[in-house]
From TrEMBL:
Known catalytic reactions: Endohydrolysis of (1->4)-beta-D-glucosidic linkages in cellulose, lichenin and cereal beta-D-glucans
Membrane-spanning segments: none
Gene source species: Pyrus ussuriensis x Pyrus communis
Record's protein name: Endoglucanase
GO MF assignments: cellulase activity
């Protein structure tokens, strides 16, 4: 019996380790630019090698956000921030995958440095999204306009700039010991970009909306990104200026967040939102670490972090910010739902660690007490659902387990690779493969798709974009979560 139990535990650990490995591998499939000799997803080739030439800049590199060939710097920066936070919290558990995590971060930060290379300007998007979305082309073939959309003093974009500042600050901590020069470069640039974001306030919706909207319009305003960036800079530098900035501006986050559902905008409490658009609950969790250890700090951060916990846990009597499928997956309105499951799971795991260190519990009312172990247990349920413990017994990570999505909405995965079809394919030549009922020929290993419907059903179809499209910001927080359970 003991041997059998040990084998089951080992098998479980191996599964999480395998999932972590594949979760990181996915980012290599999303790379733009000149691919290195170490590239492991070999059906992908070089692409977008002239990006930035329209504005006299080198903007080669970075990531495609999802199944298209556009570089949206707002969600890309959030992806980089979350990869960095994953390493900072759980890097010690990553084992042999840690170098790949650092490589994934650096692929993002190298590009973000290029995007902020001209003082008082920040690149927000590369690639005309409307033209790109009209075509079904491999990134290696794309011949749609690679327009660079840039925010400036006159046309500000505080949300994209401040998120880049957060990403550069967080990543500077990641590389502090392994590459001090690079770490210092990232931090100095973060400080400069944050100052630009704060001094010249405005939304990139208004400045470069033709490149950002409707795909990544900012619906929550830019103050959350400014506070997020300041919080990360305080974490890195301990400079009082950034802490004072957070305290002086935190009241801006008291307002209601407007997010966009398929049927139009809907309202949610800011304390419960976290993702590429809204950083609200992430700020509270991040800041709670030092708020718990400093008795002189009188602030709303811990209270609001507790409110997030109570708004999610099913047994809590507090008003809920999520619903649950019959199989137990948490849901928020809108598409690409697994972004919420992975990002909120990450926050709850991080908070569980902070709570444990401070010997703290969360009291939700009606004698409901949430312990750190309960948060870990809840999060494990979300992870296991994503990896196959669900009514369909289906993994929502491509290449993980015996049953996973075969027809994901992703241009590079759907169209035969350059190795199989070296001839150039034009705008609509890929439509034939999109319409095919065959599985995708190129396996984008590690891609976590948008996920099932709220009744636990899943349509494995390229046409069902909210369910079948992977994104970098679904995977990024999942890296940290999987690293935790790998141990």
């Amino acid at each position: 019996m003991l041997a059998m139990a040990t084998a089951q535990v080992a098998s479980s650990h191996n599964n999480y380790a395998d999932a972590l490995s594949k979760c990181l591998l996915f980012f290599e499939g999303q790379r733009s630019g000149k691919l290195p000799p170490s590239q492991r997803i070999t059906w992908r080739k070089d692409s977008a090698l002239k990006d930035g030439s329209d504005v006299g800049m080198d903007l080669v590199g970075g990531y495609y956000d999802a199944g298209d060939n556009v570089k949206f710097n707002f969600p890309m920066a959030f992806t980089t921030t979350m990869l960095s936070w994953s390493v900072l919290e759980f890097g010690q558990s990553m084992g042999p995958e840690l170098p790949f995590a650092l490589e994934a971060i650096r692929w993002g930060t190298d590009y973000l440095l290029k995007s902020t290379n001209v003082p008082d300007s920040v690149v927000g998007v590369v690639g005309d999204p409307n033209s790109d979305h009209t075509c079904w082309e491999r990134p290696e073939d794309m011949d749609t306009p690679r327009t660079s959309y840039v925010v400036t003093k006159e046309k500000p974009g505080s949300e994209v700039s401040a998120e880049i500042a957060a990403a550069l600050a967080a990543s500077s901590m990641v590389f502090k010991d392994s590459d001090r020069f690079y770490s210092a470069l990232l931090l100095n640039r973060s400080i400069q970009v944050f100052e630009f974001a704060d001094k010249y306030r405005g939304s990139y919706n208004d400045s470069i909306g033709e490149g950002a909207c409707p795909f990544y319009c900012d619906f929550s305003g830019y103050m959350d990104e400014l506070l997020w960036g300041a919080a990360w800079l305080y974490k890195v530098t301990k400079a009082p200026y950034y802490w004072d900035y957070v305290l002086a501006n935190i009241h801006y986050l008291e307002s209601t967040v407007i997010r966009k559902d398929n049927g139009g905008p809907y309202l949610t409490g800011s304390v419960t939102e976290f993702g590429w658009d809204s950083k609200h609950s992430g700020i509270n969790i991040l800041v709670s670490r030092w708020a718990m250890t400093d008795p002189n700090i009188s602030s709303p951060f811990i209270r609001k972090a507790d409110e997030l916990v109570c708004s999610i846990l099913p047994e809590s009597p507090a008003p809920k910010s999520v619903t649950f499928s019959p199989g137990g997956l948490l849901f928020k309105p809108g598409g690409s739902n697994l972004q919420h499951s992975t990002s909120l799971s990450f926050l709850l795991l991080v908070y569980a660690g902070y709570m444990k260190a401070a010997n703290k519990v969360v009291i939700c009312g009606n004698n409901v007490i949430i312990t750190p172990d309960r948060l870990v247990n809840f999060t494990k349920g979300q992870v296991d659902y994503i990896l196959g413990s669900n009514p369909l017994e289906m993994s929502y990570m491509v290449g993980f387990g015996q049953k996973f999505p075969q027809k994901i909405h992703h241009r590079g995965s759907v169209i035969p690779s350059m190795d199989k079809h070296p001839q150039h394919m034009q705008c609509h030549e890929g439509d034939l493969y999109f319409k095919s009922t065959d599985p995708n020929p190129n396996l984008l290993i590690g891609a976590v798709v948008g996920g099932p419907a709220e009744n636990d059903t899943f349509q494995d179809s390229r046409y069902n974009v909210p369910q079948s499209e992977p994104t970098t910001y679904i995977n990024a927080p999942f890296v940290g979560v999987l690293a935790y359970f790998k141990v």
